[in-house]
Design brief:
Strand order of the largest sheet: 15-14-13-16-17-18-19-20
Shape: globular
CATH architecture of the largest domain: Alpha-Beta Complex
Distance between the termini: 60 Å
Mean pLDDT: 93
Largest sheet: 8 strands, mixed
Bound molecules: nicotinamide-adenine-dinucleotide
Low-confidence stretches: 1-6
């Protein structure tokens, strides 16, 4: 093997983000290793270096092919540098981004047209621009490393794949699959990628610990990619042609129909709130009749630049970077736990145990009877089986996951676990007795993390012998879907307990937002104002459908794919839990008014809650209960306009958020925005609760409107004195 410096291959500048080596047969190995970041990103710096390498390889007669790989553990390339894009959006100046896009188009086209084979050896996440880079290679070989995944998630940032992705992906996997992947930003794993033709080979490979070009060359993945590149040398390098079925679905008429159907599906899912998926379809449809380069420059680029300048994209990119900040800020621990105890195998405990087993933890799941445990294991099996059905995991992986969970009714079995997550029934005495049991059995350093949603950590740990080991780990329901976890810190919580709780949330793929202990923590405290007001409106005779429609028209929960108003949300949370949360927040004073009589009637005799909605229509039984309540508590029926209804639902949340900041529950307004977006489905395209409020009205106007509402509807609307001063 010779190294760069070979007389016939010379790079014009020293490389900062890439390492190169040349094999004896002229194969150029290129290792991407962006300096100063944990993942590889594409920006003007790295793209210019890659351009030098591609041009030098093209010029040199000694180079017979190029193999691109990553020297980062678990990441091939994360795509375009979002910090750079965010800066451009803040300044409203996009020239540098446009330059980057132009370089990418010319460069990827040169790779595409090169007679020398370009092969990408993908291990770890291959996202956005990273996948577009891999798509410009003639072949892609991936390893089955647990972090290997592929996606063009740009629409989730309010833009479209802008390095030729809208043009190349349909040509590699066919239009129907490309429409699906791009418009939803959907992620696929190696097996699915192989089936759809996104990659050309898959190998199981043990990654080298030493991430140097020399060390990783012996890996099976790199060896497989080298032989793939060698086999391409004999014929002019070309992308693998589409399968016949994929080609048939690419004809002009079928294309129009497929794109029309995709538009219909997108509008159904995200209504008119998100323009990016629709623009991506436009780019694909227009570009399919042109060459890739022409399509990239004429169809894709103008739409990308238009989307990048939109407020929706600015908000989505801010929230994405906020998530990165949350993960970065959450302390991590070198001696992370591998075994976890879960106390309570109900709705939440079973989901948490399932998630832990999925991520490789050994779990001891404890409840009070074998039948409850059997039901929990049944639920876990059902959820995990759906992944086998979707072919994202093999049946053998499902078996391993289930074997990792040991159900038990004995607390002693939980004692070897260094971390225990408590998800028992929401009753203070039960929680305290479970904590006492834990303390009597657990090792001296074991950590107790409670998933309570309505008690404070201080309440639960009141009688603890070692309160420093107690921390809150507040997951949201459904656990697999909700990305936020509030990590609750009380004054007595140790740094070690906090770090372990953050670490486990991070390894479950969640965003661990550290919040200060207090009633309702952050999310439920703000949410309660919204839910309580919705119930008050029902009690005043405002139709259930009207209340939920106002919220859905605002975009509530649209990002989850299931828009939802406050009353449907109460049905989802479950009335008993919702009532518990509202009751526990009564300590906040007159601003939490819950209509207990109405809610109690909905819980009525059978203890089976009467939901507001049943099979998509207002529940007849709920309407009867509401009518009875209104007869018993007649109120003056005052017509309420949509505008006032909207203000009554959303302005109290803003008021409560400002109070939370004042109380130090979190310190920054962006943390509120982030938490509400990922915790309760506040629409991401609005940038979060406080961003929306600031952009809609001045602080004085918000305080003024709350004042008016308080004169009309009661003290609960009285604004926090600091609200009108702004600064939040
Ligand atoms: P659940 O009633 O479905 O489950 C509670 C389980 O705890 C039951 O299976 C019960 O048998 C078991 N249990 C009772 N005493 C026990 C003991 N001593 N040891 C072991 N198990 C015991 O309740 P859930 O909805 O899963 O809620 C559990 C916790 O999660 C609560 O603190 C709740 O506030 C919180 N939480 C709930 C939600 C939600 O949407 N339901 C969301 C976030 C947090």
């Amino acid at each position: 093997m010779s190294h760069d410096g070979s007389p016939s291959f010379s790079l014009p500048a020293t490389l900062t983000h890439f390492k190169t080596a040349i094999l004896d047969d002229g194969m150029l190995l290129v290792g991407f290793d962006y300096r100063g970041k944990s993942v590889n990103v594409l920006n003007v710096d790295s793209m210019s270096e890659w351009q030098h390498i591609v041009q030098a390889a093209e010029r040199s007669t000694a180079i017979t092919g190029v193999l691109l790989m990553s020297l980062k553990e678990g990441n091939f390339c994360a795509g375009a540098d979002l910090e750079q894009m965010h800066e451009a959006q803040r300044q409203g100046s996009f020239r540098s981004m446009e330059q980057l896009v132009e370089i990418a188009h010319q460069l990827f086209d040169a790779m595409d047209r090169s007679a020398k084979p370009f092969v990408a050896a993908v291990e770890g996440s291959c996202l956005g621009g990273g996948l577009e880079l891999a798509l410009a290679c003639h072949r892609r070989i991936a390893s089955t490393h647990p972090k290997t995944c592929f996606a063009l998630p740009e629409v989730k940032l309010g833009i479209l794949p802008g390095f030729g992705g809208t043009q190349r992906l349909p040509r590699v996997i066919g239009l129907p699959a490309a429409l699906d992947l791009i418009t939803a930003g959907r992620m696929v794993f190696p097996r699915q990628a192989l089936r759809m033709g996104l990659i050309d080979g898959m190998v199981s490979s043990v990654p080298s610990r030493m991430r140097t070009l020399e060390a990783i060359q012996t890996e099976t993945l790199i060896q497989a990619a080298i032989s793939q590149a060698r086999s391409l040398r004999s014929a002019p390098a070309r992308q693998r042609p589409l399968r016949l079925s994929q080609r048939l679905l690419g004809g002009p008429l079928v294309r129009v129909l497929l794109c029309g159907y995709a538009r219909h599906q997108v509008k159904k899912r995200v209504r008119h709130f998100y323009p990016a998926p629709l623009r991506a379809i436009d780019a694909m449809q227009r570009g399919m009749g042109m060459s890739v380069l022409k399509g990239s420059l004429m169809a894709e680029k103008p739409l990308l630049m238009e989307l990048m300048a939109s407020p929706v994209s600015r908000h989505l990119v801010s929230l994405f970077l906020a998530g990165e900040d949350v993960k970065r800020k959450a302390a991590s621990v070198p001696d992370a736990v591998t075994r976890v105890g879960v106390l309570g195998a109900g709705l939440m405990g079973s989901q948490i145990a399932g998630q832990l087993a999925e991520k490789g933890y050994a779990v001891v799941l404890r409840d009070v009877t074998p039948s409850i445990l059997a039901a929990a294991m049944g639920r876990i099996l059902k959820t995990q089986t759906s992944q086998v059905r979707k072919k994202s995991i093999l049946p053998s992986e499902l078996r391993y996951r289930l074997l990792r969970i040991a159900p038990t009714t004995t607390i002693k079995d939980v004692s070897p676990a260094p971390l225990v997550i408590e998800a028992v029934s929401e009753k203070l005495d039960v929680k305290r007795s479970v904590l006492a049991e834990f303390e009597s059995e657990a090792g001296p350093d074991a950590i107790f993390a409670t998933n309570t949603s309505s008690y404070t950590l201080t309440d639960i740990a009141l009688k603890a012998v070692h309160p420093q080991r107690c921390v809150g780990l507040h997951f949201f329901n459904p656990v697999a879907k909700m990305q936020l976890v509030e990590v609750v810190r009380a004054p007595f919580t140790s740094d070690q307990a906090l770090a372990q709780a953050c670490g486990i949330a991070k390894r479950l793929g969640k965003f661990p937002l550290v919040v200060r202990d207090g009633p309702g923590f952050l999310v439920n405290r703000i949410l309660s104002r919204y839910l309580a007001e919705a119930v008050i409106l029902v009690g005043e005779g405002v139709p259930i459908r009207r209340i939920d429609t106002i919220a859905k028209d605002f975009g509530m929960a649209v990002d989850s794919g299931h828009p939802m108003g406050p009353l449907e949300l109460i049905d989802l949370i479950g009335l008993p839990v919702a009532m518990h949360v509202l009751a526990s927040l009564a300590v906040l004073g007159s601003r939490i008014e819950s209509r207990d009589a109405l809610l109690r009637n909905l819980l009525a005799d059978t203890r089976t809650p009467v939901p507001f909605w049943k099979s998509g229509v207002e529940n007849r039984q709920a309407l009867d209960v509401i009518a009875d309540y209104r007869r018993a508590y007649p109120s003056e029926a005052r017509p309420v306009s949509d505008e006032i209804l909207h203000q009554r639902l959303f302005l109290p949340m803003v008021d409560e958020a400002v109070r939370c900041l004042h109380d130090g529950i979190v310190e920054q307004a962006w943390e509120v925005d982030f938490a509400l977006t990922y915790g309760i489905g506040f629409p991401a395209f609005r940038g979060g609760l406080l961003t929306w409020a600031r952009q809609t009205m001045t602080p004085e106007q918000i305080a003024g409107k709350l004042d008016e509402l308080s004169h009309r509807y009661g003290k609960r609307f009285e604004p926090f004195p600091g609200l009108s001063h702004g600064g939040w």
